[in-house]
Amino acid sequence: MAIFVGLRCRFVAWLLRQKFDLRYGLANRICPDTADIIAYAGRQPVPIPLPSCSHIFYHQASVEADCAENSLRTLLWNIPESDEVILYDKGGTLPAACFELLSRQHWRNWVIHREIDPQMASYTYGMNHSIPIARAPVVMVWRSDYVYPKGLYERYIQLIRDHDIVLPYSVFIGGTHVRADFIRAHWDKLENYDVAFWRTNAAEEYSIYESQDPVHFAVRASTWARLGGLNHRLWGYGWQFGEFAGRLRRALPRSRIRYFDHAWPVHQNHASSLMVRSEGFNGKKAEEDRAGRERFADFLGGPDLFTCYEYRWHQKLAPIPREERQ
């Protein structure tokens, strides 16, 4: 029947070019339905071209705007303009200047949600909400309380080709004085990354691998979806990370998970950072920690399993040899 649709259309087109009065009446009787014409064309819809990589710039309300602006500046010197950047603004406190910094990006989005209950304020909720929004097959997570060295993006891209998830081995946790103003005063130490300077000004070098705390990573979107993201049952104060890392190690071959060495991201201290919290804020976090432990013990199957888990967790994983982190 398809061949007749084409013939009818050609005849109708000829009729409409004629000058006699009955041409429209004949055309109405002969012309196929629009759906039949589209079916005759046989063309499949073509998807719009999507970015090859998406970036979640993750910001929560407890992080000062100055920290976020510092962080975003270091993100933008890492990534190409053709990549997608999603400002994930938990609580709605990012200044408009941050979105304006993305003016050259081909893809940009500003996602804001209100934190109307404690679960929505959790990192678990934020990750599980933000990563599925990304359009690209590879997603990178950057946090607004960190600043990032140049070249980190290239390392992610180089390694994710052969892996499902890629993570820096460690980060620097800045000392109490390493706040947004300190970072800006020593910007040259970031642009021309000075390892000795940051080590001197860090409270500690914190191993993401040994602590099982995936604070920064690049992941295949399909892998994240297959794993189901972070376990929202464990939302709260940190226990969801160890559970995710354990599930990751069981679900993927070791060869598909890659920790690597690079100049470490540097944590900026802010109002909710451990080293600068007020006494009242510490009390709130202590209660969150207690509730989180209780939820995790219930998830594991009781306090004995939690005691065993915590004992093994405090022993940490054996460090990956440096030659395997290159």
Notes on the protein architecture:
- With 326 residues, the chain is of the alpha/beta class.
- The protein has 15 helices and 11 strands.
- It has helices at residues 2-16, 23-30, 34-41, 65-76, 96-100, 123-130, 152-160, 180-185, 188-191, 195-200, 208-211, 221-227, 239-251, 279-300, 303-314; strands at 53-60, 84-90, 107-113, 138-143, 146-147, 165-168, 170-174, 202-207, 217-220, 257-260, 266-267.
- The longest helix is centred in the last third of the chain and has 22 residues, at 279-300.
- The model has no long low-confidence stretch (mean pLDDT 91).
Secondary structure topology:
Layout: H1 2-16, H2 23-30, H3 34-41, E1 53-60, H4 65-76, E2 84-90, H5 96-100, E3 107-113, H6 123-130, E4 138-143, E5 146-147, H7 152-160, E6 165-168, E7 170-174, H8 180-185, H9 188-191, H10 195-200, E8 202-207, H11 208-211, E9 217-220, H12 221-227, H13 239-251, E10 257-260, E11 266-267, H14 279-300, H15 303-314
Parallel strand pairs: 1-2, 1-4, 2-3, 6-10, 7-11
Antiparallel strand pairs: 4-9, 5-11, 6-9, 7-8
Helix pairs in contact: 1-2, 1-3, 14-15
How would you describe the shape?
elongated
* Range of helix content: 40-55%
Please give the number of β-strands: 11
Q: With helices defined by DSSP (H or I, 4 residues minimum), what is the helix count? A: 15
Biggest beta sheet summary: 7 strands, mixed
Secondary-structure element series: HHHEHEHEHEEHEEHHHEHEHHEEHH
What would you report as the Rg, rounded to the nearest angstrom? 27 Å
Kindly estimate the percentage of residues that lie in beta strands according to DSSP: 15-25%
- Cα(first) to Cα(last) distance is 63 Å
| Average of pLDDT | 91
Strand order of the largest sheet: 3-2-1-4-9-6-10
Low-confidence stretches: none
Structural class: alpha/beta
